[in-house]
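Quick start: what a row looks like.
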Amino acid sequence: MRKREFVLAATLIITASAMLFAQSIQAPRYQLPPKEIIDAFEAPPLPQAILSPSRQVMALLYRRANPMIAELSRPMLRLAGARIDPPTNGPHLTSRIYAVTLKTISDGSEVKVTAPPQANLSNLHFSPDGTHLSFLNTRDNGIELWVAEVASGKAKMISGADRLNSTTGDPCDWLHDNMTLICELVPAGRGPAPPEPVVPTGPNVQENQGKAAPAATFEDMIKTAHDEDLFAYYFTSQLAAINIASGKKTPIGRSAIFASVTPSPSGEYILVSKIKRPFSHLIPMNGFPEDVEVWTRSGDLGRKIADVPSREGVPLRGVQTGPRGQHWRQDQPATIVWVEALDGGDLKNKVPFRDKVMSVAAPFKDEPVEIAKTEWRYAGISFTEKGVALLSETDRATRHIRTWVIASTPRKLWDRRQDAAYENPGAPVTRRDSGVGGFGGGGGGGFGGGGGAGAIIQSGDNIYLTGTGASPEGDRPFIDRLNLKTLTTDRLFRSDARVYETVIAPLDDDAKLILTRYETPTDPPNYYIRDLNSNSRRAVTDFKDPQPQLRGVTHQFVTYQRKDGVKLSATLYLPPGYKPGTRVPVIMWAYPREFGDPDSASQITGSANRFTIVSGYSHLFLLLSGYAIFDNPTMPIVGPGETANDHYVEQLVASAEAAIDKVVDMGVGDRDRIGVGGHSYGAFMTANLLAHSRLFRAGFAESGAYNRSLTPFGFQSELRTFWEVPDLYARMSPFWYAQQVKDPILLMHGEADDNSGTFPIQSERFYMALKGQGATVRYETLPFEAHGYAGRETLLHILAERINWFDKYVKNAPPKEKQETVAN
């Protein structure tokens, strides 16, 4: 009897195991693309670079390219628009820097920073004199502060047993004494996180008492009382001054939730914005009520600048009333500047002036003084080292921006169209106290979401402007000298038309020597010192080609015209080994943009002289599978004021027709083998093109929004609400035209999308609509992925899926006529 029972039990176990095994075989697995694509994908990224304030040293930052899914699956809290890792009390994902090399610009000598074991570094900043480099190191259970000597590279951890709190952003900033960092710490003695109630005490309630409070569809909002408690627990910090020599920490004031913390240039005061209750369940933390205060170094209140109410109810096109945009003047020891609305914060109100700019100086006992008023909406103010102000204002109706020079009497410097790339004069060069970002680097000026650029460098009467230099020849970066008295400019340097050379920074105040980043289609990006007097250059770095397998790829910049006369452009990439005259499958990858007028829409941006580096889940990896890529073909949606989208579909289809005509006329593609794809608003474009045309054989749409009634208070550049223009929302929503999608489409969406408007339900409901209408559609959701995908397994899977999808429905698809006959 026992033997029969044992046999029966064993049989049941074996059967159950077999069923589980069968289920595991059937469960979806991450796919892998071909080996040549994996090899290119695994290429290490080129180092990022930060130039020290002394302009004598560069920090080269080496980072790991992509986290594993296991890293993305770490615990995450989604609170008030932020995503944090509870064990570290920091962001859920960090920049993954593992090594730092310090390179002296004059002689090219290098020292390596002694990074901690299993380094996971981020937030690197030079001290103002460039002698030290601070950085964070994220461990499994907290974030440490380290400081390295630039001369030797020797580094030490100075945060001791305390952990830094970086839930609101960069938690530290240098003072000008070059010995002190002001940092946000996890409060000492903080107890355990508040537990979630096992049994709810009641419903979660939101209500409104008759006041209009329109808002965008934000992700990761606070939803419950427990969420509020978690937000207060994890985001509360204690400010402290940390001496880098001794490691001594001096607490500053009482703990609070700091939206921003910015030391004054003198180091004597601290400008803080403290978040307070009630916490909104509708908008992110940058709209929560705040107290804006000036503190002394000991934490005493020097002056209260503003009691900012919740931004709920601020008009969609408007700004808050009361002080906003407060920041230190970088040319003064301790002077605060801010702006206040004079129109109630609402552009619908007709007033002679929209805003006024105010200022108050230490010791903050006097009444604030008015610096200027603006007829249009204030857009920013910055000061030169000699106290000359550059004030900008914008007009939404005309899409214009004006900039004024304010010394004694305001003088108009620029009045230009915001959308017109050729009219962009560049940005003033500022003196950064913590470093100038080069290739992906950056830093400077406050933390926790505050701060800003340093003072504008002024030499005599001159300042310097750098920009990308859009032109009919493509982008040609430049540096200009602008005389503030005569308002005339001299061009000091412009990238040659055959290369792409970006100006990183002048290396002296007269801009006779500049640091540039130079690349061509055959030369990888490297840094150079360019002597403008002798017109010579000398290499600072010698980065090698990280992806030699891509050197067989060729690309060219092409221009063409839409049937309404708008000029268009794109970059055509051809696969390795391409033979001229051969027609190959083509993938068009694009992202539409709105413009106020046809001339602005027709202006060319981008460059054919860039070195091709492909990373992440870029569609350019398809080149290694024999596809040509028509990359970023311009898809301008043109109309004055708020009318651009009134003819969105017609203009979109016309742009696509013109792009297809171009690649066919060039002899590269044929109309039977062209696919289309895009991400976010590009996915929205892809779905609309398939819903309103039969131009493409298949589409690939990533993390899009397809039903605009789910974003009723505007989207992208559309500011009109659903209730103002319901027909437009319907016409622009491919969900409403699911029955017209006749060509295959793959929908992909991150399950943890964090972008406003692109909730995963958008793809889910669009899939259901398409399936219900009998479309050929595939729908994939990506575990733990946000709006931009990050996990190594995910990225390789996407590359494999793109190839599989386009191979089946584009490269190897039967001719259209035959396919339609079979379908019938």
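That is the whole record. The mean pLDDT is 93. Residues 7 and 13 are 10 Å apart (CA to CA).
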